[in-house]
Design brief:
Layout (H helix, E strand, L loop, with lengths): L6 H8 L7 H8 L9 E3 L8 E6 L2 E10 L6 H18 L3 E11 L6 H17 L3 E9 L4 E10 L15 E4 L5 H9 L5 H12 L3 H7 L4 E6 L4 H8 L5 E5 L9 H7 L5 H10 L3 E3 L4 H7 L8 E5 L4 H8 L8 E8 L5 E3 L1
Parallel strand pairs: 4-5, 9-13, 10-13
Antiparallel strand pairs: 1-2, 2-3, 3-6, 4-6, 7-11, 7-12, 8-11, 9-12
């Protein structure tokens, strides 16, 4: 991995751009309205992308996201940022068609050659899932950021929402947790190169193939795990009829994240997630370190899906080669309990 540019150093210097917490974001959007019969999924829900119907068999899926550098290699950072942006389309069960670059360029500290590598990394990920880059917009900023505005397509009858899980379904997570803790450790030069590469490989991997595979099975809901952490995004999946029961001992995470977390290496976003989820969950003998990992703010995390119990093991077999061996059953969908999330 090429560490020549030290992109993460400038994130530290400027203060890492943090994603708004789920509570703050909901409050900011509460007075906005956008009504149209063609809007099938809007921002009034907590779904991963917006969906606009064009005709009986075709709808547009749209999303946008960007991140500051999480690794120093510009090409790999571009891959990770693109994978993070594209993931929302895959979580809806849709296909990526086009993307636009969204770039904040720190010209004082980042060379044009490095910027070219970031964009090349992003474009390679767009092409990997069959999409096409159409252009984008770049501005000069005091801190580097990069991501994509993505457009996909889907049949309106085949949309997979995040809050439509069925009682009795099994919960599966396709990537490990701990990336927020580990990328914070990367910025502080606390972990070795081989672990950095392992984390980068996980974050740069697309949810494209697992998304395509899940279309073969009875999947009732799906979301991707990013800035709100596993429990924050799980909470967004709850409806008035269901709760999630999660077995913490089955939740996959990169083992090195546990010791780092015990030593206080916890990003600010993860701390906000813990505070947000406290009164919405029941924790049973969960220590503070594990709680922090369950709430850890992820970059380009995996899919959390609710699948028919008869399909769960077969789905896991099919995605094993695309999950670095981490994908696991982590719980089940149960009838509404006194709390939305029960973590054992």
């Amino acid at each position: 991995m090429n560490n020549e540019y030290k992109l993460t150093k400038f994130v530290q210097a400027a203060g890492c751009a943090a994603k708004m917490g789920p509570g703050d974001l909901k409050q900011a959007l509460c007075n906005l309205e956008s009504k149209s019969e063609q809007i099938l999924v809007g921002f009034d829900t907590s779904d991963d992308a917006g969906i606009y119907q064009l005709n009986e068999d075709l709808a547009l899926v749209q999303t946008v996201d960007f991140i500051t550098p999480v690794v120093d290699d510009p090409y790999i950072y571009g891959q990770i940022a693109a994978a993070n942006s594209l993931s929302d389309v895959f979580a809806m069960g849709a296909d990526v068609k086009t993307a636009l670059n969204v770039v904040g360029f720190d010209g004082a500290n980042v060379s044009k050659e490095a910027l070219g590598e970031i964009l090349r990394g992003g474009n390679d990920k767009i092409k990997e899932c069959g999409g096409s880059l159409l252009g984008g917009h770049t501005i000069q900023t005091p801190e580097m950021y990069y991501g994509l505005s993505v457009t996909g397509i889907i049949n309106p009858k085949k949309i997979i929402r995040n809050n439509s899980a069925k009682i009795g379904d099994i919960l599966i997570l396709t990537k490990p947790l701990g990336m927020g803790i580990l990328t914070t450790a990367i910025k502080r030069d606390l972990i070795p190169l081989n672990l950095i590469k392992h984390c980068a490989d996980i974050m740069a991997s697309l949810n494209y193939i697992p998304s395509n595979i899940m279309k073969k099975y009875k999947v009732s809901s799906c979301t991707d795990i990013t800035g709100f952490g596993l429990l924050g995004h799980a909470f967004e999946c709850i409806n008035e009829d269901i709760s999630f029961s999660i077995n913490s001992s089955d939740v996959p995470f990169v083992k090195e994240a546990f010791e780092l977390c015990k030593d206080g290496v916890i990003p600010g976003g993860s701390k906000r997630n813990i505070k947000f989820i406290e009164d919405k969950s029941s924790f049973f003998n969960i220590d503070e370190t594990l709680k922090a990992i369950l709430c850890d703010a992820q970059t380009s995390g995996g899919l959390l899906l609710a699948i028919d119990k008869n399909d769960a093991k077969e789905f896991l077999k099919e995605i094993e080669d695309y999950s670095f061996g981490y994908a696991k059953i982590i719980g089940e969908v149960i009838p509404k309990d006194k709390e939305d999330l029960l973590i054992y």
